[in-house]
Amino acid sequence: MTAPLPTMAASPLPPPDPQFVLRGTQSAVHALHFFGGARGQERPLLLSGSLSGLVHIWSLQTRRAVATLDGHGGQCVTWLQTLPQGHQLLSQGRDLKLRLWDLAEGRNAVVDSVPLESLGFCRSSVLARGQERWMLAMPGRGSEEVQILEMPSKTSVCTLKPEADAKPGMPMCLELWQADSSPRPLLLAGYEDGSVALWDVSERKVCSRVACHTEPVMGFDFDSQKARGVSGSAEKALAVWSLDEQQALQVCRTHELTNPGIADVKIRPDRKILATAGWDHRVRVFHWRTMKPLAVLSFHSATVHCVAFATDGLLAAGSGDQRISIWSLYPVRSDASTPLLGHAEGGEVGAHALA
């Protein structure tokens, strides 16, 4: 009797290993950010912020740190962002300082500093306002406040305070953005009570607020083209929410997770997939339009604190195990009409099966 032929319903392929791993931070990794690097470089540079207060600049060609920035007095670096006008970096630390670094021509020098007045976990946000000006949103003096500054002048634009009857708690994450149809700056803020609010910065008022979680919002990302966002918290669910033309937020759906605790959420720049950083040591990858689970990346041996995407599709994950894993999961397609493969029913699938 001959053995039966294998069927197409065979179990899915296992997830891949990282393309490579960066080691040498010597403490837990709490922030990641890709930026383009010098002209002519084949791959972007990766910035990492560590529990020990150091910022490392990594070459993905040599897979080594090319510079180390020490500007936060040994206190955890929680947020990194390069500015669109050139080689300038913002770093936020638990030392209550925002540092502005000049990275041009290997200088790696602090050129300005903004004091923070809140020791919360809230990461700041920036919005370009022309070639030389940008807006900065950061946690304010009061525990529930968000401070908006015009930079680099540090001119105070406003302080956003919740309504007297609202008790959202501390802001946990912020995102400044502008709709294509209006120059007015808007701010999305995730709060300690699990809600997400949309602020009109010019009017200093909340346009809409929606309850997304029963625990503090630990991380979110927003797709301004689709007017849709996704958030994670300490609970076992992701919330997907949308913004209508009347600027009203509403929860579209929730996606149950295997284990509780999401530390960070990022949508890839081409808006095809998203990744989450889990307290359970795992990175989960989803299709953004359908929220179909695509892969569970089980490499790290401690909490994954942060994830970041490069424009070329590379995914980086930083963990309490002092390692940064780099993943190449799905090609970024130049033809936006080409569907992302791997939508077939049957649960999570190996990422290399979708390439």
UniProtKB/TrEMBL annotation:
GO biological process assignments: DNA damage checkpoint signaling; social behavior
WD repeat windows: 210-251, 297-329
InterPro entries: WD40/YVTN_repeat-like_dom_sf, WD40_PAC1, WD40_repeat_dom_sf, WD40_rpt
Pfam short name (any one): WD40
This protein's record includes keyword GTP-binding: no
Cellular component terms per the entry's GO annotation: cytoplasm; nucleus
Source species, domain of life: Eukaryota
Keyword line: Repeat, WD repeat
Protein's name according to its UniProt entry: G protein subunit beta 1 like
Lineage: Eukaryota, Metazoa, Chordata, Craniata, Vertebrata
